[in-house]
Design a protein that fits this description.
The chain is an all-alpha fold. It folds into four domains: 190 residues, no CATH class; 35 residues, no CATH class; 201 residues, no CATH class; 153 residues, no CATH class. The protein is built from 24 helices and no strands. Helix 12 packs antiparallel against helix 13 and helix 17 runs parallel beside helix 19. The longest helix has 29 residues. The radius of gyration is 28 Å and the shape is globular.
């Protein structure tokens, strides 16, 4: 499919301030020193030679424009990302500003208890002055998609936003680097938060449309033109698209937006983080400056994406692209700092706030509702957000941000990614070929298949979390038994090729998706049985059975690591999310049986589980030091290894305890180990995973 525009130059949105004789604008240090500037982007050669890179900034307004305080960010050593939003809001509006209407419409969602609900329920009975009956409710309508008008201020705010945009564009990697990383993304990427064909198309459109202006050396004035165009497009509402053509044209070509550019930055950083060892050796050779270190490249991509988000926030933008940008920034952040970072948890709250603020949760199914590209995208994003909210909640043991009680969004249809970019007729025909529950019938697994299955389990997880993390009033044994029954029924609702008992596929990527679904299904059963044992004091046999399956699957990822080599960077997450909880339950039971052999015991094959625990120790030791959760894996290695020593050899003198050679961990003292209540199912909760010398989130290259 061709791009929307073949233009290679960008028309400026307004008359651009220039120096006399239309010369290129000098950077501020050169201008103030009255020396010749070579206009190199992002830092001129003179500032590089003088070591003044942090002060090198290009301003488009006259001498009255002042730069903000220096910032240590590699994105802009002179622009604080928050200054764009914190500039003086009482400045006079410029002549080009769009006057605000008496009542500015908003893209925000307002529910049935909102301040305007009583008026909206009566339709045309209430019409604002100057409106026609057909516009009734537009003043406060929850369904309005027109964003709040944005006044463009002269001086600080406008200048900072434009300067930030220029810096972001100047940090965009070369076209060759982008194309190389996108080929890797296309071959290996499993897109979950957005839509892979859209991302690939928009990257191609970016270089087709603006490639001439992005050639090195990049000039300030050309980047300013692009930045102004992107800002103007971002202030416009993202219209709902009925088919793929309308969807792509709304965010590509001359309609390119800051949101989609931020998403592209995140994808570039994500792919760089996922490169295999041999790919890591050759990738930095094509980079410049600090980018010859892969981690520096990832951080720069993250900062650029955050800069795009900052511009969008200053423009009060709210749409599906912004939600996806928030998601991807959080994902990339977690790859740098780990999943226990409080910043990662806060960002997840921002994603949930954006989703509910836009009303994605309140989209009840209507009979005979036509299928559209935008509608399916929104359903996918909401389902992915809801599922990820439960995953992080389980991992951290914290209450989820989004409850199933407020969910009125139907599942997305099980349509392939390519179909969503087809014409309207093809889209409708594909939807009609699905079964009555919205599942595909051609025995294939798509991104939508994975999202739908995750959502079914996430609804169950949310109910279990209410009882596991809530107060005593939330718990009911009868309700827990009902949840167990409904969880077992999910397998019957899934197509046969998605069920736990059937994990066979002709490709590694599809097999990895099947394996991931099996992990989620077993984790859901694990949470139910764990709650049953802890809260209802029930029999632990079912919990042990599920734990054995989870542990066996976890170590199989390591024993078959060559088979899943493309996804090796997820190993630390698989271990911490699935392997460690199940290993904890098994270790506790082994110790109980060893210390009280005369008591009735649950069935637990010692040979099998001890072998798998030993393999888990090897798996933990194999996790690379640069993995996001390497520090956590190193500490858990110590705990499980010492538990195995106690099970196999009994108590040993502290001097005889072996030391691990895992660089990411520090051995525990006997006092620390002895203080753990190993005969308590809550023993993992006594471990502070995020403090002490056991955690090292650095990603040295």
């Amino acid at each position: 499919m061709s791009t929307n525009s073949s233009a290679t130059t960008v028309p400026p949105m307004q008359s651009q301030p220039r120096r006399r004789k239309r010369k290129d604008q000098a950077c501020e240090p050169c201008r103030k020193a009255k020396t010749r500037c070579d206009h190199t982007i992002p830092i001129c050669l003179r500032c590089q030679r003088k070591g003044a890179a942090a002060k090198c900034i290009y301003l488009t307004s006259g001498p009255n424009a002042r730069a903000s305080s220096p910032h240590t960010s590699s994105l802009d050593g002179q622009i604080n990302l928050h200054d764009v939003n914190n500039s003086e809001a009482n400045a006079a509006t410029s002549p080009i500003a769009t006057p605000a209407p008496p009542f500015a419409s908003s893209a925000a969602f307002f529910g049935p208890t909102s301040f305007s609900a009583s008026f909206l329920e009566h339709g045309n009975d209430f019409v604002a002055e100057g409106e026609t009956s057909g516009d009734s409710g537009s003043m406060l309508s929850p369904n309005s998609t027109t964003p709040t008008s944005v006044n463009v201020y002269p001086g600080d705010k406008q200048t900072l936003r434009l300067s930030l945009g220029v810096k972001i564009l100047s940090q965009l990697p070369t076209q060759a680097t982008c194309e190389e990383l996108m080929e890797t993304y296309k071959a290996k990427g499993l897109e979950y938060a957005f839509h892979q064909p859209t991302i690939l198309y928009c990257m191609k459109s970016l270089w087709t449309t603006f490639g001439h202006n992005l050639k090195h050396p990049r000039k300030v004035e050309k980047l300013q033109d692009i930045a102004q165009l992107l800002t103007r497009n971002t202030t416009q509402p993202l219209e709902d698209a009925e088919d793929g053509r309308a969807w792509l044209s709304s965010m590509s070509g001359q309609r390119f937006r800051w949101e989609i550019l931020g998403i592209l930055f995140c994808v570039l950083g994500w792919v760089a983080a996922k490169l295999k060892s041999k790919e890591q050796e050759t990738f930095p050779e094509a980079q410049f400056g600090n980018r010859n270190h892969r981690f520096s490249f990832i951080l720069e991509m993250l900062e650029c994406a955050e800069g795009c988000l900052n511009i969008c926030s200053g423009l009060d933008v709210g749409n599906i692209l912004l939600v996806s940008l928030l998601w991807k920034i959080n994902t990339l952040e977690s790859l740098c700092t780990g999943d226990t970072s409080l910043k990662t948890w806060r960002r997840q709250g921002e994603i949930v706030s954006a989703v509910t603020g836009l009303g994605f949760h309140h989209r009840p199914h209507q009979p005979n509702m036509p299928v559209s590209t935008t509608l399916e995208m929104k359903r996918r994003v909401f389902a992915a957000t809801f599922s990820n909210d439960k995953t992080l909640s389980v991992f951290a043991g914290r209450p989820p941000s989004l409850s199933h009680r407020y969910n009125a969004c139907p599942l997305p249809l099980d349509l392939p990614d390519e179909i969503l970019l087809a014409d309207k007729q093809t889209l409708q025909e594909a939807a009609q070929n699905l079964d009555s529950d919205g599942w595909s019938t051609d025995m294939t697994i798509s991104t939508a298949s994975r999202i739908r299955a995750y959502m079914l389990y996430a609804m169950i997880m949310d109910e279990v979390l209410e009882m596991s993390l809530g107060n005593d009033a939330q718990f009911s044994e009868a309700r827990l038994l009902d949840i167990r029954r409904r969880n077992d029924e999910i397998q019957e609702k899934l197509p046969p090729w998605l069920r736990i008992s059937n994990v066979t596929s002709s490709s590694n990527s599809l097999e990895w998706m099947q394996t991931a679904l099996k992990f989620v299904g077993l984790q859901c059963s694990f949470l139910i049985e764990q709650a049953f044992v802890k809260r209802a004091k029930g029999d632990c046999q079912r919990l042990l059975d599920v734990s054995r399956q989870l542990l066996a699957m976890t170590v199989s990822i390591w024993t078959a690591k060559d088979h899943f080599l493309s996804y090796f960077s997820d190993n630390d997450w698989v271990i911490m999310c699935y392997g460690i909880p199940s290993a904890g339950v098994i270790c506790v039971e082994l110790l109980n049986q060893m210390e009280a052999p005369h008591l009735p015991q649950s069935y637990l094959p010692r040979s099998e589980v001890i072998q798998n625990l030993s393999l888990l120790v090897g798996f933990l030791d194999w996790v690379r030091p640069t993995a996001p959760n390497a520090g956590l894996c190193g500490r858990m290695l110590q705990i499980i290894k010492r538990t195995l020593d106690k099970i196999l050899d009994g108590p040993t003198p502290s001097s005889a305890l072996p030391r691990t050679n895992n660089a990411a961990s520090t051995p525990m003292t006997d006092a620390e180990y002895g203080s753990m209540q190993l005969d308590d199912l809550d023993w993992l909760n006594t471990i502070d995973w995020t403090t002490g010398p056991f955690v090292d989130f650095r990603m040295d290259q």
